[in-house]
């Protein structure tokens, strides 16, 4: 029933695309600000450089309340982050800024 209701919602796709674009923008802006390389993305996730140990980064992110992607060999200096709501990604951005202040990324 939920699937049928979503198909009937004429604005669902455009709203979903806008929310995803806002989330992507929040992540892209912080990565650019911190000069962390990232791969272009037109999806709901992004690969970005971390400048440190991936396992330590993933553990620190989990401790901060963010579950980030698994390792993608051979790209072990990169992490995959899936986009949540824009406000969640703003929190992720603030966490990255804190990590930079601590010398972790």
Ordered list of secondary-structure elements with their pairings:
Layout: H1 2-8, H2 12-33, E1 45-49, H3 54-63, E2 78-82, H4 86-101
Antiparallel strand pairs: 1-2
Helix pairs in contact: 2-4
What does this structure look like?
The longest helix has 22 residues, at 12-33. The protein has a single domain (12-101), classed as Aspartate Aminotransferase, domain 1. A two-stranded antiparallel sheet has the order 1-2. The protein is mostly helical. Helices cover 52% and strands 10% of the residues. The chain contains four helices and two strands, in the order ααβαβα. α2 runs parallel beside α4. It is elongated.
Question: Summary?
Answer:
With 105 residues, this protein is mainly α. Helix content is 52%, strand content 10%.
């Amino acid at each position: 029933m939920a699937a049928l209701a979503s198909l009937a919602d004429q604005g669902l796709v455009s709203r979903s695309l806008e929310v995803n674009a806002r989330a992507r923008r929040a992540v892209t802006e912080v990565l650019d600000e911190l000069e962390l390389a990232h791969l272009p993305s037109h999806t709901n996730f992004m690969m970005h450089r971390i400048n440190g140990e991936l396992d330590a980064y993933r553990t620190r992110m989990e401790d901060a309340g963010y579950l980030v992607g698994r390792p993608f060999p051979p790209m072990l200096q990169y992490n995959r982050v899936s986009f949540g709501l824009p406000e969640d990604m703003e929190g992720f951005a603030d966490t990255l800024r804190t990590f930079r202040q601590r010398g972790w990324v």
